[in-house]
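Note to self: the last two entries modelled the partners one at a time, which told us nothing about the interface. This time every component goes in together.
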Amino acid sequence: MIRGYLLSFLVFVLITDFAVAQTGCAYDIKGKVISAEDGKAISFATIEVVTENNRQALASKSDGTFEMLGICQKEVSILVRFIGFQDFEQKYVLNSGLNTIEIRLLVDVKNLGEVTIEDEKVAEIVTIQRSEINAEALNRSAGASLGEALTEITGVNMLQTGPTIAKPVIHGLHSNRILILNNGIRQEGQQWGQEHAPEIDPFVANNLRLIKGAAAVKYGSDAIGGVILVNPAELPNSPSFSGKVNLLGASNSRLYASSALFEGGINGLDGFGWRVQGTFKKGGDAQAADYRLTNTGTEEQNFSLGFGYHKDNLGLEVFYSSFNAELGVLRSAHIGNLTDLAIAIDSDRPLFIEDFSYDINNPFQDVKHQLLKANGHIELKDLGDFSIQYGLQNNVRKEFDIRRAGRSTIPALSLDLVTHTLDVDLDMSAKGNWKWDVGASFLFQVNQNDPETGIRPLIPDFENWTAGAHLIGRFIKTKYELEFGVRYDHRHYLVKRFDQNNVLQKPEFDFDNVTGSVGAVFFLSDDWTFRSNLGTAWRAPHVNELYSEGLHHGAAAIEEGNADLKSERSLKWINSLEKYTDRFSVSVSAYYNLITDYIYLRPESVELTIRGAFPVFRYQQTDALIYGVDTDLEYRFSDQLEATAKLSLIRAKDRDLNSPLINIPSSQLEGALVYNFIEGRLAKPFVSAGFRAVSRQGNAPRVVSISEVLDANNNDLDLFANDPSIFDFVAPPEGYVNFNLSGGFDLKFRNENSLNVFMSVDNLFNNSYRDYLNRFRYYADDLGRNVSIKLSYTF
Amino acid sequence: MKTINSIKFLSLLAMVLVMTACGSDDPDPVNEEELITTVRVTFTNAAAPTVTATFTDLDGPGGNDPVLENPTLMTNTTYTVAVEFLNEQESPAEDITVEVSEEDDEHQVFFVIGTGLNATYAYTDQDGNGNPLGLAGTFTTAGAGAGNLTVTLIHEPVKTAAGVSSGDPTNADGETDVEVTFSVTVQ
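The predicted structure of the combined assembly is written out below.
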């Protein structure tokens, strides 16, 4: 923040300096710096014009333009730098008089030209001005979990387990089918579980970026649905001190949270920078429109530390983060058997409703995630940028259940996952129109169950060894860019499990995969951009899919692993057309994702246990198809009034059985009208009114009721003989429309500090509704009205 | 070329470090203390032979099918009923009934009599709060008939809810730990 002001001040000084210094030489340059991604002007980019014996620097103006008059030499090279974009360098031979040039900066995302979307607009990455917008967008979702914050992006939904647990869903895929890169390291938690949310504090992030394509070539396995990049800001590299303090409160769960971040450089040690950050968050029982959702409290305590050195062509960084969360699980969702579930489904209201409380009782999850990262990069002359990063993660997940004889204090699930990752990458300097990137990655992972639970583990102990290498080529022209990539991966599992007689078995598995990708971006006339990418991705069956066994209480089903599973492979074609002007912006992207050997739970039989009958599901493979369209529109009627709309449509099916897949988002439309007041003492004052309409999932799996399952058991019928397709115990809930209001402003202080104030009301009319993607829709309504206020002080 | 070599070296070094530093120990098997494999209902009357009904699923949920032993009772007889919950994976079998009676206020056993079975059940025990527990009771048969008897153990029921103390689990809420259905013949 403060760096922003410093930079603009510096730029101002440079410009005035330059204006005074100019002489009567014969060459003039007028130009404009724009983003190659969306054609938008880039302001405050540093432009250096280098001649044989002179070097002049200036910055682009707010509309991206710059001019340098009276250059004395014919041959110049122009260097343009801006955070979030790749450095630009080109030699020019000038004509005498005026020379007009346009400089397109390439976004510094080493992807394959897939749609890169962040917060609300494409590629509004970390430019100085825009980082404010980004911080603002994150401020607005402050207090929300990562999964919740990401739903701002069209085509991203959340799969919830009550109000406390949200997982991001990209184009209908989630859990092991998406990849989260937290600070450049692949997040390795127990993400196979539908009720296991990502262990990341959004307050650490400066921006959230999403790649919707099958980006496995660059990032490795699992990126079938897409990749989420959680990026903190760059560390300072010069002596300074700045920071940010967030405070927020929300009415629904009486949530309060605070987060503070301080960063700076070190006097006398040029190039060094540091940052410390901490978050505390506490929420109580959430409120549906008509009742409390008992035991849905949360508590989070997170912190992170960063230290780095950045100078010229060299950078070194060490980063540590610790995430600690306790998440209450709706008491009424804790069921013992199908009879309990049937009673819960038949009841309009949850069975346990108590007065508001901050207490987190059983059942609850206690999750700790630590990340230690060390990375370095060096720019090698004529070769490119070589980087290496090592990550050590430790994920400890304990789930506490309601148990007999004082065992409620002993976790029912206790997993300890340690992951080492090592990535090396050489991003080669452009040679002519070609640019290459080559790299390799290694992962070693150990998962261990603590036998203290006294319960046979849901997922056995295992070791996972993975190694991969990739090569990506880019052919860059002004009007278009072509890209292609190949990758090879090998994964080895060593599983340590006990059979029914408690004899240790150590089966081993090997998976080899080659993935590839081709893509193109065309910068068309009239500022239209067209992108097309065809990519493949893969993932090995997870150990839970190979060896799950027994009753899954949350799902009221017996789930059985299948050791014969093969790798799942995806082929995703995504096309997008975008245009950004001062008046409007439009972006439409369509995708077609064909997944062969898609792994899913297929119902097989009904089995009697001491708790009564349960359906038995077994992991099987089929061919799945997911396709859809995401549309983003923005229209500015005037400087004050603008409208936004987002539409996402998605369809999914099992191609073998010609039946729907479960937990696929339904069609959604969001719209908002924003009124920006004229700035005065308050900067950026605005109010916004919007709605979110979610249709009923009309393409849901068939319904097999609990009484049908129980009858099948009583009468010894084979319920799935004629139709082995997926089923649900109840039909999807009705569609709904929720309205929201928000407003905010910035208060600038004379010392350049600022206070951002944001207020919002979600579910304005306290609508009672249930969402298809909330797994607790069987038990309770979704959240009622929520009024929140968020303050963010930057200095 | 020198750089390429150092890249190779660094990555190899890292791989070696990772390989030697880690490697997991073999796990210990879990001792499943809470598992209930067996429900045994004993019907006794001094003037009649003692009858036991059992439901046994030694390998827990999934795997092999459970084994049921259904009771045949005499007409017009009042039996004393005792229920036992056992973990027979342990040797000797662990008596889970002890845990249930220790936490008597958090548990209740229900006996739901299906159509065709001419009998009634009554609680003869109580928890610390004076509410029924259901480890002990009486089962009184009338005329001949046959039908289902569902024995349910509910953890954390709301014992004060309507009908619960008279043996109807409909409003009991809580979590079902055991639900077994016997086919009872009265002759």
